Amino acid sequence: MNAPLHSGLEHWLSAPDDSPAPDWLLERRRAARARLSARPLPHSKDEAWRYTSLKGLLEQQFTAIDEPLSALQPEDLDTILIPGFDAYRVVLVNGRFAPELSVLGELPAGARVGGLRDWLGHDPESLRGQLDATRGDSETFFALFNTAGLDDGLVVWLARGVMLDRPLELIHLSVGLDEPRVAQPRHLVHLEAGAQATLVERYVSLGESLYCTNAVMEVVLERDAVLKHERLQMESRNAFHLTGFYLVQDENSRYAGVNIGLGARWARTDLNTRFRGEHAECLLQGLYLAGDGQLLDYHLDVEHAVPNCRSEENFKGLLTGQGRAVFDGRVLVSKDAQKSDAAMSNRNLMLSEQAEIDTKPQLEIYADDVKCSHGTTVGQIEPEMLFYLRSRGIDAAQARRMLCLGFAGEIIDRLGDEAMREHVAEAVGQRLA
Amino acid sequence: MLSVKGLRANVGDKEILKGLDLEVGPGEVHAIMGPNGSGKSTLSHVLSGRDGYSVTAGSATFEGRDLLELEPEERAQLGLFLAFQYPVELPGVNNTYFLKAALNSIRKARGESELDAVSFLRLIKEKLKILHLDDSLLKRAVNAGFSGGEKKRNEIFQMALLEPKLAILDETDSGLDIDALRVVAEGVNALRSPERSMIVVTHYQRLLDYIQPDYVHVLARGRIIRSGGKELALELEQKGYGWIDAELAA
Ligand SMILES: Nc1ncnc2c1ncn2[C@@H]1O[C@H](COP(=O)(O)OP(=O)(O)O)[C@@H](O)[C@H]1O
Ligand SMILES: [Mg+2]
């Protein structure tokens, strides 16, 4: 008998269970569910939920998606694909792997990419150690929900020294259904020693429908592995979006992540990273744009648990209309993590009087020989910059847009592909029009 | 072309321009000289439409249009150009993109079509050469990290590209060494034409050795207190600005 779930979330796990789950997985799901029902709902009294209310989310009464949507044709992706962006492609529709829309072609030897559900059908044992490998005790309420409802997602496994020659694009496409639905994809990424890849994760929708995505990605980078990771959250403006990202890094590995957040009416992103080996590097860049009716909430938890690692957290925000954003960044340097280097920055450009930003960078440092810094700014467009552009014949609206794109450019330029940079710059520009 | 009559302007409660008159005809080059703080930049800003000044009396018309009614971009589109005393750095705003946006806005206002990419690039390269500027400038952000001299040359480069009817150069010479000054002056002289007027604002006479003005005005305490030919600039060079106080006190 299952324990009852919180009101408003009781149908998140209601999918009939037809997935080929091994016993150990069923047990994990049950355990997650039991822990969930024992945990209170996140509340504004919890530090991590101080600025973000769950009320709107609970009111929707989302229900789990019970069957895959099979009616999509490859042409349906025409408006979604980025012209000129050449990549291996995995498509998930409403959280379910869609092989007929995915294009993997000839992957290099030693690279395995596929749907989680399929993988569990033919090689479940390989995932036993991977699932939940990254999370330690930082498991959030919604990550537990994701585990309790675990069903499908993306699995990427690169053997020792394997390099993906092209980016791997994960398109998470949501298509509105008759009633508000929640998808809970689980993505597992494992790079063995020295492996290298670029992963581009895109959350998009057909139409402006109401749905919820509660995604979790776990990434393990073994020694010397290199992962470039770009996340584009461009969900429907009526959608709810939750992401739990969990990364562990072994010695000398490098992770560079760029987070772009433009979509959803309510989005909560938790980025949790942990160094397990020395001389590793973790770069987290972000750009968010929140306008009318939007709340974009970012929580970073960066743990320097061992010495000699470097991290950089650099998030920039554009706030327009009545948009709201939250940046809660925490860097923890534990007692033994000498020679840690961490630099955190959060800069915001407020484009209206009604917009709101709550920013809270925190450094918790228990080691004595470290180099750590943090800084926050909340500012407006400089009038003299605006005047300079206008004095050259450029009208005020375009001048403002150019300055905002200039501000955002520092992050957009970190994207690895020209077509991708154009795609994002155009999307940002449109939102500022 | 430009007619300024009895112009008075405040910053906050403080009156800076105190009844200023100036007539500039087509093709004329007027130098405005004056001590620091006399209101030279204020005049440039008021004419180009910068916020923060309130005009309390007088008028400024440009080709028959009331300048003071217009937005800054409308003035630029009519053919007014200001070379800034302190050009503004625009981090992240790509120079090529900026130049294209500016040129196209102005061409559109003149009823011309947008330039295609090839002609645009050709035009830009031609103008860069005049100012001895390197192509690499195009990939950089506008003025960001430019040296003082580069910034000033970049202003004249923009002027060469936008081909205004009236250019106001606000202390374009200040902070330039003699070689840079020569390059800037050559750039300006190359743009002189019977249709293009210029107001050259300067503190020193030096620039006027290279850019020969038709008229010289002395601006002090918010008014033009003397006007004459280029010999007036030489007189100022010899006497300095000290005599002004004496004259105004008299
Ligand atoms: N924004 C401002 N706020 C207060 N005073 C100003 C401002 N701009 C100019 N002024 C004052 O106006 C006077 C004229 O300044 P300005 O036009 O810059 O002189 P110039 O360019 O001739 O050196 C100076 O006394 C200066 O202090
Ligand atoms: Mg001045």
TrEMBL record, chain A:
It comes from the Bacteria. Residues 23-169 form the SUF system FeS cluster assembly SufBD N-terminal domain. It holds the Pfam family SufBD_N. One of its GO terms (biological process) is iron-sulfur cluster assembly. This is Fe-S cluster assembly protein SufD. The lineage of its organism: Bacteria, Pseudomonadati, Pseudomonadota, Gammaproteobacteria, Chromatiales. Residues 181-407 form the SUF system FeS cluster assembly SufBD core domain. Belongs to the iron-sulfur cluster assembly SufBD family. It comes from Allochromatium humboldtianum.
UniProtKB/TrEMBL annotation, chain B:
Residues 2-246 form the ABC transporter domain. Signal peptide: none annotated. It comes from the Bacteria. It holds the Pfam family ABC_tran. The keyword ATP-binding applies. The keyword Acyltransferase does not apply. Keywords: ATP-binding, Nucleotide-binding. InterPro entries: AAA+_ATPase (IPR003593), ABC_transporter-like_ATP-bd (IPR003439), FeS-cluster_ATPase_SufC (IPR010230), P-loop_NTPase (IPR027417). GO terms for molecular function: ATP binding; ATP hydrolysis activity. Belongs to the ABC transporter superfamily. Ycf16 family. This is Fe-S cluster assembly ATPase SufC. It comes from Allochromatium humboldtianum.
